[in-house]
UniProtKB/TrEMBL annotation:
Segments forming domain Cell wall hydrolase SleB: 266-345
SUPFAM superfamilies tied to this protein: Cell wall binding repeat
InterPro entries: Cell_wall/Cho-bd_repeat, Cell_wall_hydrolase_SleB, SleB_dom1
Protein name: Cell wall-binding repeat protein
A single MF term (Gene Ontology): hydrolase activity
Highest taxon of source: Bacteria
Extent of the Cell wall-binding repeats: 47-66
Secretion signal, residue range per the UniProt entry: 1-26
Organism of derivation: Marvinbryantia formatexigens DSM 14469
Taxonomic path: Bacteria, Bacillati, Bacillota, Clostridia, Lachnospirales
UniProt keyword annotations, A-Z: Repeat, Signal
């Protein structure tokens, strides 16, 4: 009987040892929905510390359970995958965690070719904000805005808000906001319109702004009947009180092109007469109100109908100098052949070169 008891005791002890050994050598141990890890070297469960296992870092709380999701350790916020508990670099909601799993604060992070800024509380900054004295604008989807206008502000290639400088056709002041209306920069006066920016080479509210957008003062402007003089404030004091804007290069080329195709072989007077007919139509309420629409009006000018005008206009070829001169003269000074609107071989009242005008 004594022998049997001894055998039973030995077997029981062996079973316990084997069982304990199995648990200890297993490493990971599942306890319901929670996970623990047994350190075989220290012969205890990992608690209240980080542990590198299989090349990955994991954190276990004071009870030895694996921490997942977002948590704080020694004043730092971390995030580990809920599914595996592994530390990884990733964005979670409005926060970003680096390769060590630590929440990023007060720095830029590049995520899929876009830059995002995470503030003092680690939260993603969106909209307009300032970092080290420079203002930026970020969107939630694409991060830092670069080389782009947002509202009345412009952000350069580094994403910094532009201040006290021109960008394209707008001037951005000391606050970074675009300036509109009349304003002065470095002693020069400009005018900007919200829809199109700087007023250039034209009249606006009885004041003329030159090719650089600077208000013209103390000088003669225009030529012929369109000529006038402006004082030190840019106000017209002599000459034409209602001058026209200088013609655009596009309008000059278009009128020169139709003049060349209609009267390229005619005298200068003949070229001016053809250009004048076009301008007469432009100034009449019976015809369209833009140069292009007048010239391309259905059934009016053969070169416009057969495509030769469009081909010449968009080509890189220079147009005959006399035709360009005639176009500029008529566009600047007005028609030299008032009251004539058509080329009419049958009912023409005036002949200049090969054209009869009516």
């Amino acid at each position: 009987m004594k022998k049997k008891r001894t055998v039973f005791f030995v077997l029981t002890v062996l079973l316990c040892v084997l069982s304990f050994s199995a648990v200890c050598s297993a490493g990971w141990k599942q306890s319901g929905e929670k996970t623990r890890y047994y350190d075989t070297k220290k012969k205890t469960y990992v608690k209240n510390s980080w542990k590198k296992i299989g090349g990955k870092w994991y954190y276990f709380d004071k009870k030895g359970y694996l921490k997942t999701g977002r948590f704080q350790v020694d004043g730092k916020y971390y995030y580990v995958k809920r599914s595996t508990g592994k530390v990884c670099s990733r964005q979670v909601g409005s926060y970003y965690y680096n390769k060590d799993g630590v929440m990023v604060k007060n720095r830029w992070v590049k995520i899929k070719k876009h830059y995002f800024y995470f503030g003092a509380n680690g939260k993603l900054k969106t909209g307009k904000f300032t970092v080290s004295g420079k203002t930026y604008y970020c969107t939630k989807s694409s991060g830092r805005v670069t080389s782009k206008r947002v509202g009345d502000y412009y952000y350069n290639s580094r994403g910094e808000m532009v201040k006290n400088r021109w960008v394209k056709n707008y001037y951005y002041g000391s606050s970074g906001k675009a300036k509109y209306g009349v304003f002065t920069v470095s002693g020069k006066t400009y005018c900007c319109i919200r829809s199109s920016g700087k007023v250039v080479n034209r009249w606006y509210e009885k004041h003329f702004y030159d090719a650089d957008g600077v208000l013209a003062t103390c000088q003669w402007i225009g030529s012929g009947s369109n000529k006038c003089y402006v004082d030190e404030t840019g106000t017209i004091i002599k000459g034409n009180k209602n001058p026209k804007d200088p013609p655009s290069e596009a309008d000059i080329r278009l009128l020169a092109a139709i003049t060349y195709l209609e009267a390229g072989n005619q005298s200068y007077r003949g070229k001016v007469a053809v250009a004048s007919v076009v301008i007469n139509r432009l100034e009449s309420k019976k015809f369209p109100n833009t140069l292009k629409s007048v010239i391309y009006q259905s059934g009016q000018f053969t070169p416009a109908m057969n495509g030769s005008l469009t081909k010449l206009y968009y080509s890189k070829k220079s147009i005959q100098k006399e035709c360009v001169k005639a176009a500029k003269e008529v566009l600047t000074e007005g028609s030299k052949l008032k009251g004539y609107y058509y080329f009419n071989i049958y009912y023409g009242k005036l002949k200049i070169g090969d054209h009869w005008f009516s």
